[in-house]
């Protein structure tokens, strides 16, 4: 006698075509939501990178003390709103002046000119090229940059004689959208470093009179 009981089907249970397409649609919608979330995050990051990171005054004060100056000669990428200008300088170039197209070799109260640059991160490569050009004119430059040592612009800076001073810890940049409302933000989500061109011009100037007076 033959066994007529139906055989159990093996493997994955069959899914009804309607259920399958509903599942595919749900998964597509999930992937789209994730992508939109990622894009939103990146957009916020890039927007804030472009011009909303103002230098913590403790850092500029420390640099000024180190070089024996009260103020820098020039901030070539200064905020348009004077209330947001936290870098002490004799001269400022704003976006309207276009610090990229102007000479940084301005008449300093005490030569040589010392320029402090915290560039808009959206065009950092162009600002590094400008630092390199201006450094050839005998301008002392201190640039505060994200410590992205693997990028082409960082490599170019080092190849063109920038000295790298890593900044330990994470800076608390001043943040704010409205006039007069700057306040320290959370610790930056990136490491920072100073790129310095021509520091020896300052050392030599300082040393010369002392040597002369013997
Ligand atoms: C990262 S913030 C630094 C602000 C300030 N120098 C500081 O250290 O606190 C960059 C600034 O560069 C300005 N900026 C953007 N493009 C510029 C340009 N072509 N010339 C001058 N300033 C510019 C932006 O308006 C923004 O205020």
In short:
The protein has 214 residues and is α/β, with parallel strands linked by helices. 38% of the residues lie in helices and 18% in strands. The radius of gyration is 28 Å and the shape is elongated.
Please provide a written account of the structure:
The protein has helices spanning 17-51, 57-67, 124-135, 152-159, 199-213; strands spanning 72-78, 89-94, 114-117, 140-146, 163-167, 174-175, 183-184, 192-197. With 214 residues, it is an alpha/beta fold. It folds into two domains: 17-50; 52-213, 3-Layer(aba) Sandwich (Rossmann fold), CATH 3.40.50. Mean pLDDT is 84; it is low at 42-50 and 207-214. The strands form three sheets. It has a four-stranded mixed β-sheet. The N and C termini lie far apart (122 Å). 38% of the residues lie in helices and 18% in strands. The radius of gyration is 28 Å and the shape is elongated. It has five helices and eight strands, in the order ααβββαβαββββα. Bound molecules: S-adenosylmethionine. The site of S-adenosylmethionine has 19 residues, from strand 1 and strand 2.
Largest sheet: 4 strands, mixed
Query: What small ligands are held by the chains?
Result: S-adenosylmethionine
Write down the overall mean pLDDT.
84
Within the CATH hierarchy, at the fold level, what is the topology of the largest domain? Answer: Rossmann fold
Q: What general form does the structure show?
A: elongated
Using the 3D structure, state the CATH architecture of the largest domain: 3-Layer(aba) Sandwich
Proportion in β-strands: 15-25%
Distance between the first and last residues' Cα: 122 Å
What is the CATH class name of the largest domain?
Alpha Beta
Helix fraction by DSSP (H/I, runs of at least 4): 25-40%
């Amino acid at each position: 006698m033959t066994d007529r009981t139906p055989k159990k089907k093996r493997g994955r249970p069959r899914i009804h075509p309607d259920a399958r397409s509903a599942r595919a649609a749900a998964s597509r919608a999930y992937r789209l939501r994730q992508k939109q979330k990622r894009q939103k995050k990146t957009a916020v990051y890039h927007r804030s990178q472009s011009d909303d990171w103002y230098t913590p005054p403790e850092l500029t004060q420390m640099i000024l003390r180190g070089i024996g100056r009260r103020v820098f000669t020039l901030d070539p990428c200064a905020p348009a709103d004077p209330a947001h200008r936290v870098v002490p300088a004799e001269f400022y170039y704003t976006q309207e002046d276009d610090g990229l197209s102007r000479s940084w070799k301005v008449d300093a109260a005490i030569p040589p000119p010392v320029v402090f640059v915290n560039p808009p991160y959206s065009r950092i490569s162009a600002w590094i090229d400008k630092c390199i050009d201006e450094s050839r004119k005998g301008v002392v430059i201190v640039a505060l940059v994200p410590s992205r040592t693997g990028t082409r612009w960082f490599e170019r800076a080092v190849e063109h004689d920038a000295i790298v001073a890593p900044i330990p810890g994470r800076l608390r940049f001043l943040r704010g959208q409205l006039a007069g409302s700057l306040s320290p933000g959370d610790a930056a989500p990136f490491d920072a470093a100073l790129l310095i061109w021509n520091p020896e011009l300052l050392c030599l100037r300082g040393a010369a009179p002392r040597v002369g007076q013997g």
